[in-house]
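Chapter review: from sequence to fold.
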Amino acid sequence: MGSLKSIVFAALALVPNATSAPSASSLGSRESTSLAVRQNYPWQWWTEGQGQFNCQQQGGGRYSCSWNGQSGGGMVAGTGWGAGRKTVRYQGQYNPKGPGYLSLYGWTRFPLIEYYIVESWDVLAPGEPWTLRGNFTSDGANYALYTAQRVNKPSIEGTRTFTQYFSVRSEAEKKVGSVSGTITTGNHFDAWARMGYGLGTFEQNMFMVTEAFANGNQLPSGTSTITVS
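The token string follows.
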């Protein structure tokens, strides 16, 4: 699961008090980006390449998306909060086909880490090789911790080499269609640290995102309506 998103963050790092956003894998292919506070929640909306992508913030922590990506096309949309240790609850409808996922997403600095807590997906389709580091339980669900390395890729600090952490809910426990769950972020951070994978200083915001991307001949499509609190 390679990041689809990053040049946005790199640009925002140069703007005081800017709302943070995820990373983009390609400068030239970025088509549109919107970062704002809407309906009292940080909101990020990003697309690249070809396809039909439509996402809207609807108020009360709710957003909806529909997508039909073509080769090289992808999108990320989500509602956020200040990053750190907290309990995040989500519910709604998530109906994906092809590569992409529903996840909590963010960054740290010192060290530079891109992290995901992946709750649901159809096809994960990682862009870089993943290494399984261990398993743990949080909020009654079983997760696997994977790491990957991105070499000379865009990040919140410009083109850098950095590590990605992925908490991935077990295949047997993930939900598609009607989804809901609780994410106690500190449980994940502590489990990663126990395995030797600590985080750094949190970037301003993290987001509960719907992400979709093309991977080779696998193309994404689907719909989601997610409410977070």
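Two observations follow directly from the output. The chain has a mean pLDDT of 85. The first strand starts at residue 30 and ends at 38.
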